[in-house]
Amino acid sequence: MGILLKNISTLLTLEGARRKEGRRITESDLGLAQKQSLLIEKDKIAWIGPQGKLPKEWARKKGLKEIDMKGRTVLPGFVECHTHLIFAGDRAAEFEMRNQGVSYQEIAAKGGGILSTMKNTRASSLQQLVNQGQKRVNHFISQGVTTLEVKSGYALNLKDELKVLQAVQKLDGVRTVSTFLGAHALPPEFKTYESYLEFLADKVLPEVKKKKLARRVDIFIEKGFFPAEASEKYLRRAQEMGFEVLIHADQMSLSGGSDVAVKLGALSGDHLLQITEREVKSLAKSEVTCVMLPTADLYTRTKYPPAKELIEAGARVALATDFNPGTSPTQDLNLVGLLARLEMKMSLPQVIAGYTVGAAYALNLQSEIGSLEIGKSADLICTTQDWQCLFYSVGESAEKTVFSRGKKIFD
Ligand code: NIG
Ligand code: FE
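Above: inputs. Below: predicted complex with fe (iii) ion.
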């Protein structure tokens, strides 16, 4: 058994980027090699080497299937590490309002924003959410995504938050990583952020854990949303229960989110556009992965995070779409990468590493995915594009074959 991909014109292993733990990436960290072959055994990468040099013990094995890559480029599957994929309805009317001058916070304070998506999501059945979610998953897969993070957070009560997480478990094709984001906004049933967080920690997190619906907890620390102090207490409780934590931090104002992330050793701090030199330094020294979400910055027309400063200071940076109906109604990885290049001046190797190794770290899956190395999961993109044409043309749909855990999931 086994699948040999032969005739690969350029292979990008990203091994160097993984060795540098996703920090200060340059072209030499992409592991570029010409005329290569790659062997998949079951769900793992078994061998990588020059064309025609497959060791005899493998070549002799029965049932080896060869696939001619016909000069394609092969790279690790993309890791999309921040989405709010399960939601019902849209917020197009709000987008128009925001565009005409009403702020995100004003809309939220009037019961719009996250709470409007909450009403639609609570009213949807599990099956409706799965059906809609699967279409969105398929769209990610067609772009080369092999691992997909999905947050809850549009239901904000026990029953429906669990329903959303159950929907994530029913999604097919990619490896999914679910995150509990009950602390996304204050639902109408509660008067204070503190009492809602207590409810989440006392009643909801134990259920999520018992039912094994998520092993990660996220929170939206922001003015008009969850305050830093109460959030820190909540996240500590989550950590005591064995959850990994991460934070929507410093998106609309400098609200202490990055500080809490560093203090608690969060897996990631996401957004970070309001941070100053002080936070850049402390994030760079930490293990926190800095997740940049430039399409959200485009839609909210604020500014972009200081990616270049973070990278130069030694921080690990990842990229993601933040796909959600409010601030980032797009699943377009190319647009994310293009904005990272144009607006954040990230180099192309940094963008590629951000969508592979960096994002794998954000999910704490760096030993399984994100780079092409022997023993790692056979998650890969085989594309007709030259690597330098990646994240270049918005709306492109180059021919590609996508493998996840050794299985073809898109062709
Ligand atoms: O990542 N910032 C908080 N959460 C989302 C927005 C959610 C929404 O507006 O529906 C974000 O941008
Ligand atoms: Fe988000």
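The pocket of N-(iminomethyl)-L-glutamic acid (ligand 1) is lined by residues 113-114, 117, 220, 248, 251, 296, 322, 324-327 (CB under 6 Å).
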